């Protein structure tokens, strides 16, 4: 009778152990699935944030390029204006030098005539 009772307990214990093992296995699978799903969500959010940041950087680069293009146009206009101002100043200076030279020549001629 003792053998029969211990055998029932042993079979019962084994059955309980199998059920616990199956329950823990299923629970582990569910936990792993949830963890994997959360990792996918985290990866998706990181990808979305990276794409958002990339779009922001591209927009900033375009704005910078447009700003540099406008600045280049302004500098080209300034170069043309400076060249024009230089030409005007040079004409005035050369014109005065020619006048001074003509005056000096006239003075020399006058001195020669007088002398």
Question: Would you give an account of this structure?
Answer:
This protein is mainly α. Helix content is 98%, strand content 0%. The protein has 1 helix and no strands. It has one helix at 2-114. It starts with a helix and ends with a helix. The mean pLDDT is 81.
Entry keywords:
115 residues; mainly alpha; 1 helix; rod-shaped
Intertermini distance: 164 Å
Structural class: mainly alpha
Which bin fits the share of residues in helices?
A: over 70%
Quote the average pLDDT: 81
Strand content: under 5%
What is the total tally of β strands?
A: 0
Order of helices and strands: H
How does the overall form come out from the CA principal axes?
Answer: rod-shaped
Topology (elements, then pairings):
Blueprint lengths: L1 H113 L1
Kindly summarize this structure in a few lines.
The protein is an all-alpha fold.
